[in-house]
Structure formats: structure tokens, C-alpha cells
Design goal:
heterotrimer, A alpha/beta (about 220), B alpha/beta (about 250), C alpha/beta (about 475), A: about 220 residues, Rossmann fold, four-stranded parallel β-sheet, four-stranded mixed β-sheet, globular, B: about 250 residues, alpha/beta, about 10% strand, binds iron/sulfur cluster
Chain lengths: ~220, ~250, ~475
């Protein structure tokens, strides 16, 4: 063990610790929003930061995604062939732009990934109504860069998994019990910055466009 | 419940430069049927030294003050900053000192004047003055330390001929800050210059405040600008003086 | 010991021309308005502040245990943990990792701790390129500057200045003052850099002890890129950033961006719990965390100063500071400007070097009023003023305590305290002063450069109330 570690810990433990009133710590803001209200708020927040939100259902979501691809003039779409959504799209490949599958380590196709992919499509673990947020957990099927590197990110969110608050999502999905993935992400809009004279600009490093399909 | 009598702590700035504000405050209180006691041995709350880091010197002066209010009656102070010193900083200043309990007894009975007029005495004012437009500057200590920012407006709201004009950046500091004005004169000057501009822009003929430190700063800048730049100088008064002038027959 | 520095700012010079000052004021106004709009219900805001304070105070009360728990969990997750007592040690650790990988460049997400370390300079001296990727940081790095704000590093620059700068540094790109185009250029340039970078660096907003997770808050995605694309990720953080539980995070995340920029949430909240796993296809294969002390454990030892460490670096105190808005961040000459810098810097480096900052406050309290974790900033400034002139220097952990005590000033306060605690002396003095008021000079130095001198009254309040027969006991 390093000397620095021992010295720092020794200094910290030598101190008489303050007593902290913890009564305020657990109080969580709760909202009793029904599903319609959660969808309404989620949509409103997302649109406020220039994300697109499309309403769809189990019967027509494929059409919705196909239309989005068409409207955006995508030449290709990157996705995982193994998710429920990926499978369905794969089976209807003729209705979509060229499908690319995230099947290799990034090192093996970094050039293509960085410069030749038009859009990435991901599933989501859930959403948060209060802030208009998507929850994504990285996985072997859907790696981190799928929602990061391509200029357009299309995300599918099941409205059953739309929670009121982040705290609620963490609790009800049992994040602690499941154990966190290498990378858990909250995404609340397209990449943006106001660093130049406080003027909002989109697509600084992450996707310039975020498209959410509610199913 | 309205107390029969109160202690009045006049503050050193009012004592030396703005005694009329102190006298007016006493008259306002007396008119409400309250007996005012002014301990003649009072000097200063100790804040200048406290804010300069000279705690021992501040305590010495504060110690002399806490002896002056033996009766369990309110202590009314026509200044948010001196009230804030006694109410919130005396407990820190005397922490662990033999007379900590005495200091706490004083701190717990402190009221800022406008707070006392509104919340305790629930005064009802009759405006006898001419129509006038007034800007209000609330001191930072009245606003943030004492939390009594709205009292001054509540009092002015009772005066039918007074029209309160709100200046831009109302809640911003005027740049006085005690020794700050001397230690950082350039920044302080920039702050007070902005403050005077914002007040002047309201067109109000008159400025009132519950703190004489801010008044000295702002009115000093007004006077300077009038003399050197030919600008208008709104009349600056402590709220007590303004209220008394407009309401006594 | 360094000679105590002085802090006197020429406001005109500090922010340059009038238009720039106006632009800067407008920027701060917008931030203040945006924040206010995020908290329409004051009671809810106060409850959230109390909660955030409790979360941070709790974490600090268990700091050594939580740091060890964090370390254990990070190691379990495959993250390598390093401890540094000083910024030099931290820099050496980063350098060591770079050398092990034979890396000649590093791409950085926004990190104030790396600024504190002077990492860029340190690496460049050793032939390693350190490139900032946060748009604001990128801009000021182009101009050879340091951040003037902890959240918006280039806030002091106007659109015109940035356009000219881009044109000067990238002559191949046609001149434009279109913000979208400028941003697109930066994206292209930095994409290539991300593509090639062997090492990425980031700061940490919160580190969760319970799960061994590093949390990052950002809008641009450069934080995600820096921690995802390069094969090695190094995170640097102060030891105070740890929180106990995962359930502490939502509340802090709720108050941080709202206080900082008035956003309900940032675009990205990035929770990193380890390097790429064998079956994963991207992410760094190595993740390091450098835990930096740099004076924090000293601050920790004082129950009053400890509150400083609750800070979540939102910058709200800076945005609301009437001094900061007039002089800008660079005038402070420190890594952290504004109220948080005013209390943190002298505690980190001792009262000699930045101790003068504690005078750069009118103690108006605007900072303490907005601080999401209720740090009593004005009280801490007051305490540091005490430390700077106190004689019992053994009773404070603050370094170089007492070094700003000047004998003339001390003697003046002593004389004042004698007079003001001796009523007969005070009354004699004040009466005499008012009687001799004609002799008070009209020129009171700095005071009278923009103000007329105050006039003493003819009669003191003491005298007038006596005459009026007001009871004195
Ligand atoms: S001191 Fe408070 S307001 Fe200032 S940056 Fe830290 S948390 Fe934010």
C-alpha cells in the first residue's frame, strides 16, 4: 500500500468526526403521475431540448422506425441483431437502409464506426419523466459507442418502463441488487454546448440528433 | 403581543452620522405606546472588527454591549447589519466563552426595526405626505442574514401617497461591505456606481433603506455624481426617518 | 514562505471594454434567471438543499471509511486506484501510466482537478501533448488561457473573439462567426483526436462508495468520448467527492445542473463502474482513478472549515457573485475563481499566496444563499480573515495563519476596541468628533474617489436622546 494512501487515511481518521443529522437525507420527491402524464412530461422535456419523440405501439413501431430512417435519408443503420428490436428490423431488412451490426470489437472497425455510420439504434432500460431522460446500460450486445459515435441516435423506449424520477427507476429496477454495468447512462437529449457565447449548439461530440420512439 | 417596553440599540453609524434616523425610530416606537429604553453606555455592536478578522477585539466591544440589556424585553435595532451581528454572530463570537449564555440571551431578543414594526407592533400608518416615488434598497444583511427584506415594502405599502419603484438588480449588494469599500475600493466603486445608475433609472426622487451603511455608500456616490457629473441626486433617507416625516401630524 | 501577495483589481482592465463587461453581465444574468426558473417553489428548493447538504455532510463524516470502501469496490470492478498527497504526486502517477503505455498524447474531458494539478503544463514539459476536448476548454487552450469559470471555462470570450481565434489557429477553415459552424469545426478536429488518442482523462463529479462507480455530468459528450474511446481512461478527483450510497445520487443529480446552468438535467450522466469486460466490444481496457488530497485532509480537520469540502462544484456561487461579475475569473489568479475559490484556494495553498482573496468579498451573502449544499461561504471567509490575523495560530489548520497581521492595523483595532468598550471614552470621542466635524477632511482616500465624504452630525444620538428624556435603563 502506498505511503500517500496511509498518510491521507491517517490524517482523516485522526479527526473527531462531526455528527450529521441524517433526517433530511432520504426524503425523496415523489410524483403520483399516471402513465399518460409520465408520457406527456417525458415528451415535453425531450422536445424542449430538441429531441424528436414519436408515439408508436407494438403493431406499428417498425413502420415508425422505417419512416424515420427514410425521412433522415439514412444510408445505413447500426444496431444489435440480438435485441428484440434488432431482430425484428433484421427480419424486415428490405424496409430499412443498409443494416450494420455491432458484432466486432471497436478496434477492428474503428474507421468505419467513426466516419461511415449514419445512425445507431438502441433499446433502453427505461425512461424518466421528470427530466425527459433515457436510461441505457452498456452490454456486449449494445456497447457504449452505439449511442455515442454515430451522428444520429434512435432509441426505443417502452412506455411501461417510464418512471417518474431517477430515484424511482433506481429503486424499482433494483439497480443495487442487479449490480451496475460497466457503463450506465442517462441521456436527456442530443449532445449540446453553450460554450460559445452561451449560444446553444448541437452535436458537439455526441449525436447531433436524438430520436425517441415510444412503444 | 405588544411589549410594554423595549431596548433600543442605535448603532454607532447612526450615533455619529445619522442620529435623526435614530430619533425617528424612537419616536415611531413610542407612538405605538412602547416605552423605549436607550442604554447610554452603548457604543458599537463590534461588527467592524468581527468582519476584519479581529475577533478578540470584536468580543471585547460586544461584551460591553451584552451587559446593557438585563431585562427580558426585545432589543430593537434600526439596522439589518448590526441586528444580524448580534443575532447570528454573537452566538459564534461567544462560543465556549464564560458569558456565552448572556450573549445568547441577547441574540435571541434582537429584532431589526422594520421587522419589529411589522411583525410585533403591527403598525398601521397614515400617510400625511405629498405624492412621491420611492426606491428601496434592502441591505444584504437585512435580506439574507435577518430574512426581513419584505418588511420595508410592507410598511411603504401602507402609505397611500408613496409609489414604490423597483430598480434593476434590486437584490444586488451596493458594494459597501464595511472595510471592503476600503480594502477593495475599485470593485466597491464599480458596484456602487452601478447601484446608483439603477436607482436613478427608476426616476424615483427618494431612496430609503433600513441600513445606514448602504445609505452612506449610495448617497455618497449620489452626492459625488451630482457635484462632479451634474447628475440628479435622489434624496436618501433611513426608513425610520422617512416614515416618521410622513406620518407625524 | 512566499511574500504575501496583494489583490487589487483594476475593474476597467479586468474585463476590458465596456461591451465585454456588458456581455459578461448578461451571461451571468442568464445563468441566474435560468436557475431561478428551475426552482419555482422555494420550499421545495430549500428541502432539496437540506437533503443535498445532509448527503454530502454524511459522506464527509465517514470519509476515510468511504474512501476505503470505494477503493475496494473499484478494485473489485477492475479499476486501479492511486492515492496522491500532492498535485506533483498526482501528475507523476498520470505520467507513469502514460509511460507504461508509451503514450505521447492524452485527450481530456473537463476536469478542474487536472487544472488544479497543472497537468497540461506538466505533461507538455515532458513532451506529451494534452488536448482539451470540452468545447470551452478547447477554445481557451487554443488561446493559451486558463478557465475563467469552473463550469463555463470560456464564458469571458465573446463570439467575435472566438471566431477570430478559430480563424487564426485554423487558417484552412473559412472565417465564420456562425456558432453551429464553429462547433462543427471543433467536432471534426476533435473527432480525429479521439480516434487516435491512446489515453483519455476525466474528472469525477461523484464517486459512489457502495458500488465503486464514477459519475460524470456533462452536455457535450466529450466526457463520454474521453472515457470510452481511448484504450486507457484515467479519472482524477479530490478525495472529498465520494458519496456513500447509490441512492444518494439522484438528489445530487437533481440539484447540481439546476444550480449550475439552470438545466433540469445535463444531456449525459455517465456512470462508470469498470473497464471493458472480456465479452464487451468497446470501452477502455484499463481504468485508473487518482485520488488527490492536496490540502483537503487539512481542511477536513477543522469542524468549521470542513463545510468547504461539501462543494459539488456547481458554480452557482460564482454566477451570483457581484464581485466576480465585475472582475471576471482570471482576476483571481487562481484555479477556482469566485466565492468557492475565495474560500478554497487560501485553504489549499496557505494564506500567503492567495490569502488576499478573502478581502475580495463584501460579505453580501449571495453565494451562501444559492449554494445547493448550504456552504456558509461568508462565514468561512470571515473565519479565514480571522485566521489571517490571529495570534493563536496553533488552533487552526490553515497554513500561514497570522501572516497577514500588520502591526499598525492590529494596533488600530486594539485602540478601537478599548474605546468602544469604554463608554466614557467612546462618548467623549464621539462628542468631540462631532464638535470638530468641520475638521474632518473631505478627502478620505479610496472612499472619495467616487463618493463624497460623509458628514458627522452636529449632535450624537446619545446626546439627542438624552435631551429628549428617553430612559436609559
Ligand atoms: S460552493 Fe456551493 S455554490 Fe459554490 S460551487 Fe460549491 S456547491 Fe456550488
Amino acid at each position: 500500500m502506498s505511503k500517500a494512501r496511509a498518510n491521507i487515511l491517517q490524517r482523516l481518521t485522526a479527526v473527531e468526526r462531526p455528527v450529521v443529522d441524517l433526517s433530511a437525507r432520504e426524503s425523496l420527491s415523489r410524483f403520483d403521475w399516471d402513465k399518460a402524464e409520465r408520457i406527456r412530461r417525458f415528451t415535453e422535456r425531450m422536445q424542449a431540448v430538441r429531441a424528436e419523440v414519436h408515439q408508436a405501439d407494438r403493431a406499428n413501431w417498425l413502420d415508425t422506425v422505417a419512416t424515420i430512417c427514410q425521412q433522415k435519408g439514412l444510408n445505413n443503420l447500426l444496431l444489435s441483431p440480438t435485441t428484440e428490436w434488432g431482430q425484428a428490423i433484421t427480419q424486415n431488412a428490405e424496409r430499412f437502409p443498409t443494416l450494420k451490426y455491432y458484432e466486432r470489437s471497436i478496434e477492428d472497425w474503428k474507421q468505419e464506426m467513426f466516419y461511415e455510420v449514419d445512425a445507431g439504434l438502441t433499446s433502453t432500460l427505461g425512461g424518466i419523466a421528470e427530466t425527459g431522460t433515457l436510461i441505457l446500460w452498456s452490454s456486449p450486445d449494445e456497447p457504449r459507442t452505439l449511442s455515442l459515435v454515430p451522428p444520429i441516435h434512435i432509441a426505443i423506449l417502452e412506455t411501461d418502463k417510464l418512471y417518474s424520477t431517477f430515484a424511482e427507476a433506481v429503486q424499482e429496477q433494483g439497480w443495487l441488487e442487479q449490480g451496475l454495468p460497466t457503463n450506465a447512462l442517462l441521456i436527456s437529449g442530443p449532445s449540446r454546448s453553450a460554450d460559445i457565447a452561451q449560444v446553444l449548439a448541437y452535436g458537439v461530440h455526441g449525436p447531433k440528433e436524438l430520436v425517441v420512439v415510444l412503444v | 403581543m405588544k411589549p410594554e417596553s423595549i431596548y433600543f440599540f442605535g448603532t454607532c453609524l447612526i450615533d455619529l452620522i445619522y442620529p435623526k434616523a435614530g430619533v425617528s425610530a424612537v419616536q415611531l416606537l413610542q407612538r405605538e405606546g412602547v416605552k423605549v429604553i436607550y442604554p447610554q453606555a452603548q457604543t458599537c455592536c463590534g461588527q467592524p472588527a468581527w468582519n476584519s478578522g479581529y475577533r478578540n477585539e470584536a468580543r471585547k466591544v460586544a461584551r460591553a454591549q451584552i451587559q446593557l440589556f438585563p431585562k427580558n424585553i426585545p432589543i430593537v435595532i434600526p439596522s439589518g447589519s448590526c441586528a444580524g451581528m448580534m443575532k447570528t454572530h454573537y452566538p459564534e463570537l461567544f462560543k465556549g466563552e464564560p458569558d456565552e449564555a448572556d450573549a445568547l440571551k441577547v441574540a435571541n431578543r434582537v429584532y431589526e426595526l422594520t421587522e419589529f414594526l411589522v411583525d410585533v407592533l403591527k403598525v398601521q400608518l397614515q400617510d400625511l405626505g405629498q405624492a412621491v416615488e420611492v426606491a428601496v434598497h434592502t441591505s444584504c444583511s437585512a435580506r439574507r442574514e435577518m430574512g426581513v427584506a419584505d418588511k420595508i415594502e410592507q410598511l411603504l405599502g401602507q402609505l397611500s401617497n408613496v409609489d414604490v419603484k423597483e430598480q434593476a438588480y434590486k437584490a444586488e449588494c451596493c458594494g459597501f461591505g464595511g472595510t471592503f469599500a476600503v480594502k477593495q475600493p475599485e470593485i466597491s466603486a464599480a458596484m456602487v456606481t452601478d447601484k446608483t445608475q439603477h436607482i436613478r433609472a427608476t426616476g424615483a426622487a427618494q431612496l430609503v433603506s433600513q441600513d445606514c451603511g448602504c445609505l452612506m455608500n449610495i448617497s455618497g456616490a449620489f452626492a459625488y455624481q451630482a457635484e462632479h457629473e451634474g447628475k440628479s441626486a435622489p434624496k436618501a433617507q433611513h426608513i425610520a426617518e422617512f416614515l416618521w416625516e410622513r406620518t407625524h401630524g | 514562505m512566499a511574500k504575501p501577495t496583494e489583490f487589487r483589481v483594476d475593474v476597467e482592465k479586468a474585463l476590458g471594454k465596456t461591451e465585454i463587461r456588458a456581455h459578461f453581465r448578461k451571461a451571468m444574468d442568464t445563468l441566474m434567471i435560468n436557475r431561478r426558473n428551475q426552482f419555482p417553489d422555494d420550499a421545495a428548493l430549500q428541502a432539496l438543499r437540506t437533503q443535498a447538504q445532509a448527503i454530502r455532510a454524511n459522506a464527509l463524516s465517514k470519509l476515510p471509511e468511504l474512501l476505503q470502501q470505494l477503493e475496494t469496490n473499484l478494485i473489485k470492478n477492475g479499476v486501479q486506484v492511486h492515492w496522491a498527497e500532492t498535485t506533483d504526486e498526482a501528475n507523476q502517477i498520470v505520467l507513469g501510466i502514460m509511460q507504461k503505455h508509451n503514450a505521447k498524447s492524452i485527450i481530456k474531458g473537463k476536469s478542474m482537478v487536472s487544472e488544479e494539478m497543472g497537468l497540461n503544463h506538466f505533461l507538455e514539459e515532458r513532451g506529451i501533448e494534452a488536448l482539451e476536448s470540452d468545447l470551452g476548454e478547447f477554445i481557451i487552450q487554443l488561446d493559451g488561457e486558463t478557465p475563467s469559470h469552473i463550469i463555463m471555462p470560456a464564458i469571458h470570450k465573446s463570439k467575435e473573439q472566438i471566431s477570430a481565434l478559430f480563424h487564426e489557429k485554423f487558417p484552412d477553415i473559412p472565417y465564420t462567426d456562425n456558432v453551429d459552424e464553429l462547433t462543427a469545426s471543433a467536432r471534426r478536429i476533435l473527432r480525429d483526436k479521439f480516434y487516435a488518442a491512446p489515453v483519455g482523462l476525466s474528472g469525477v463529479n461523484f464517486a459512489v462508495a457502495e458500488t465503486g462507480t464514477l459519475c460524470l455530468v456533462e452536455n457535450e459528450g466529450n466526457g463520454r468520448m474521453s472515457t470510452t474511446i481511448p484504450p486507457v481512461h484515467i479519472a482524477v478527483t479530490g478525495i472529498e467527492k465520494v458519496v456513500e450510497k447509490l441512492s444518494d445520487i439522484p438528489s445530487l443529480l437533481s440539484i447540481l445542473p439546476r444550480s449550475a446552468t439552470g438545466q433540469p438535467i445535463t444531456t449525459y450522466f455517465n456512470m462508470i463502474s469498470g473497464p471493458r469486460k472480456p465479452d464487451e466490444k468497446d470501452g477502455p481496457t484499463e481504468v485508473h482513478l487518482v485520488l488527490l488530497d492536496n490540502g483537503r485532509s487539512r481542511i477536513y480537520s477543522d469542524p468549521e472549515l470542513l463545510a468547504t469540502l461539501r462543494c459539488i462544484r456547481c458554480g452557482a456561487c460564482i454566477n451570483h457573485c457581484p464581485v466576480y461579475v465585475r472582475i471576471g475569473g482570471h482576476s483571481y489568479g487562481t484555479v477556482y475563481p469566485g466565492p468557492i475559490g475565495t474560500i478554497l484556494e487560501p485553504q489549499k495553498s496557505g494564506l500567503s499566496v492567495h490569502g488576499e482573496l478573502i478581502q475580495a468579498s463584501s460579505l453580501c451573502g449571495a453565494c451562501g444563499e444559492v449554494c445547493p449544499v448550504r456552504i456558509p461561504i461568508p462565514n468561512i471567509i470571515n473565519r479565514l480573515r480571522y485566521d489571517s490575523v490571529r495570534k493563536d495560530t496553533e488552533n487552526t489548520p490553515t497554513q500561514e495563519a497570522g501572516t497577514r497581521r500588520k502591526s499598525l492595523e492590529a494596533a488600530t483595532w486594539k485602540a478601537w476596541s478599548w474605546a468602544a468598550s469604554t463608554p466614557s471614552v467612546y462618548n467623549f470621542g464621539s462628542k468631540t468628533a462631532t464638535q470638530l466635524r468641520g475638521l474632518v477632511p473631505n478627502n478620505l482616500g479610496a472612499w472619495t474617489s467616487v463618493r463624497s465624504a460623509p458628514k458627522l452630525a452636529e449632535q450624537t444620538l446619545h446626546q439627542q436622546l438624552k435631551t429628549l428624556g428617553v430612559d436609559h435603563e
